[in-house]
Amino acid sequence: MTARDxxxxxxxxxxxxxxxxxxxxxxxxxxxxQSGQAQSSVTAKIIIRARRMTASMRLIHQTxxxxxxxxxxxxxxxxxxxxxxITLPVSAGVNxx
Length: 97
Prior knowledge:
Blueprint: E1 2-4, E2 10-12, E3 23-26, H1 29-34, E4 44-49, E5 58-63, E6 66-72, E7 76-77, E8 85-92
Antiparallel strand pairs: 1-2, 3-4, 4-8, 5-6, 6-8, 7-8
Protein backbone atom coordinates (compact mmCIF):
# COMPACT_ATOMS: atom_id res chain seq x y z
CA MET A 1 0.00 0.00 0.00
CA THR A 2 1.30 3.46 -0.85
CA ALA A 3 0.24 6.51 1.15
CA ARG A 4 1.53 9.97 2.04
CA ASP A 5 2.75 10.67 5.56
CA UNK A 6 2.11 13.90 7.50
CA UNK A 7 5.03 15.59 5.69
CA UNK A 8 3.60 14.67 2.28
CA UNK A 9 6.29 12.06 1.59
CA UNK A 10 5.09 8.93 -0.18
CA UNK A 11 5.55 5.80 1.96
CA UNK A 12 5.07 2.20 0.87
CA UNK A 13 4.01 -0.40 3.44
CA UNK A 14 3.21 -4.10 3.24
CA UNK A 15 -0.40 -4.87 4.11
CA UNK A 16 -1.56 -8.36 5.14
CA UNK A 17 -4.03 -9.74 2.58
CA UNK A 18 -4.82 -13.25 3.84
CA UNK A 19 -3.64 -16.14 5.98
CA UNK A 20 -3.73 -19.43 4.08
CA UNK A 21 -2.54 -23.02 4.42
CA UNK A 22 0.31 -23.84 2.07
CA UNK A 23 2.76 -26.51 1.04
CA UNK A 24 6.29 -25.07 1.11
CA UNK A 25 8.69 -27.30 -0.81
CA UNK A 26 12.41 -26.59 -1.34
CA UNK A 27 13.44 -27.22 -4.95
CA UNK A 28 15.29 -30.43 -5.64
CA UNK A 29 18.76 -30.15 -7.18
CA UNK A 30 17.27 -31.23 -10.52
CA UNK A 31 14.49 -28.58 -10.41
CA UNK A 32 17.05 -25.96 -9.40
CA UNK A 33 19.24 -26.79 -12.42
CA GLN A 34 16.22 -26.90 -14.77
CA SER A 35 15.05 -23.46 -13.61
CA GLY A 36 17.94 -22.01 -15.61
CA GLN A 37 20.24 -19.09 -15.03
CA ALA A 38 17.52 -16.44 -15.37
CA GLN A 39 15.66 -17.85 -12.38
CA SER A 40 18.58 -19.23 -10.37
CA SER A 41 17.39 -17.30 -7.31
CA VAL A 42 14.23 -19.46 -7.13
CA THR A 43 14.80 -21.72 -4.11
CA ALA A 44 11.36 -23.19 -3.34
CA LYS A 45 7.82 -23.57 -4.56
CA ILE A 46 4.74 -22.80 -2.51
CA ILE A 47 1.40 -24.36 -3.41
CA ILE A 48 -1.86 -22.78 -2.18
CA ARG A 49 -5.52 -22.85 -3.15
CA ALA A 50 -6.17 -20.61 -6.14
CA ARG A 51 -6.56 -16.94 -5.32
CA ARG A 52 -5.57 -13.65 -6.90
CA MET A 53 -1.79 -13.33 -6.53
CA THR A 54 0.88 -11.30 -8.34
CA ALA A 55 4.67 -11.30 -8.34
CA SER A 56 4.59 -7.88 -6.62
CA MET A 57 3.27 -9.55 -3.46
CA ARG A 58 5.31 -11.45 -0.89
CA LEU A 59 4.69 -14.44 1.34
CA ILE A 60 5.60 -14.87 4.98
CA HIS A 61 5.95 -18.49 6.08
CA GLN A 62 5.36 -18.72 9.82
CA THR A 63 7.04 -21.61 11.62
CA UNK A 64 7.80 -22.40 15.23
CA UNK A 65 11.37 -21.25 14.53
CA UNK A 66 10.39 -17.83 13.17
CA UNK A 67 9.18 -16.24 9.95
CA UNK A 68 10.68 -16.60 6.48
CA UNK A 69 9.92 -13.95 3.86
CA UNK A 70 9.61 -15.15 0.25
CA UNK A 71 9.59 -13.05 -2.92
CA UNK A 72 7.25 -14.41 -5.61
CA UNK A 73 8.85 -15.08 -9.01
CA UNK A 74 5.64 -16.08 -10.79
CA UNK A 75 2.14 -17.53 -10.48
CA UNK A 76 1.44 -20.89 -12.16
CA UNK A 77 -2.03 -22.53 -12.42
CA UNK A 78 -2.39 -26.19 -11.44
CA UNK A 79 -1.74 -28.78 -14.14
CA UNK A 80 -5.12 -30.50 -13.94
CA UNK A 81 -7.98 -27.98 -13.80
CA UNK A 82 -6.02 -24.73 -13.92
CA UNK A 83 -8.26 -23.20 -11.27
CA UNK A 84 -7.99 -25.23 -8.05
CA UNK A 85 -4.43 -24.54 -6.89
CA ILE A 86 -1.57 -22.23 -7.84
CA THR A 87 2.15 -22.83 -7.59
CA LEU A 88 4.37 -19.91 -6.63
CA PRO A 89 8.09 -20.22 -7.44
CA VAL A 90 9.78 -18.16 -4.71
CA SER A 91 13.14 -16.95 -3.51
CA ALA A 92 14.02 -16.44 0.12
CA GLY A 93 14.71 -12.82 0.87
CA VAL A 94 13.77 -9.74 2.78
CA ASN A 95 11.39 -7.06 1.56
CA UNK A 96 11.78 -3.90 3.57
CA UNK A 97 8.71 -2.19 4.89
